[in-house]
Design a protein that fits this description.
ThuA-like domain-containing protein, 4 strands, Class_I_gatase-like, alpha+beta
């Protein structure tokens, strides 16, 4: 069995990787061409694409910005995709 220790957390190969997909859901609401491709938001499209691989997935909304920020400071991994530097997380005043 593969074990990993990250901070005070221990993980085993049987643990599912937890993934939170967060999208500010702006373009899908303001641009018809984006809404046509992602009617439920790109966050749902990403969740559907990752689901078959066994990840424990949840989608999130803007209310979590401060919590995500705190968790990143505590060592949580964060992968930011295209145009993420414009997100509320990166504009969060405590980030700088």
């Amino acid at each position: 069995m593969i074990k990993a220790i990250v901070g005070s957390n221990q993980y085993r190969e049987t643990d599912k990787i937890r993934v939170t997909i967060w999208n500010e859901y702006v373009s899908e609401k303001t641009k018809a061409e984006v809404a046509a491709v992602y009617p439920h938001g790109i966050h749902h499209a990403l969740a559907e694409g990752l689901a078959p691989y066994g990840f424990l997935i949840r989608t999130a909304k803007d209310e979590i910005v401060e919590r995500v920020y705190q968790r990143v400071l505590e060592g949580m991994g964060l992968i930011v995709l295209h145009s993420g530097h414009f997100s509320k997380l990166f504009r969060f005043s405590a980030w700088s």
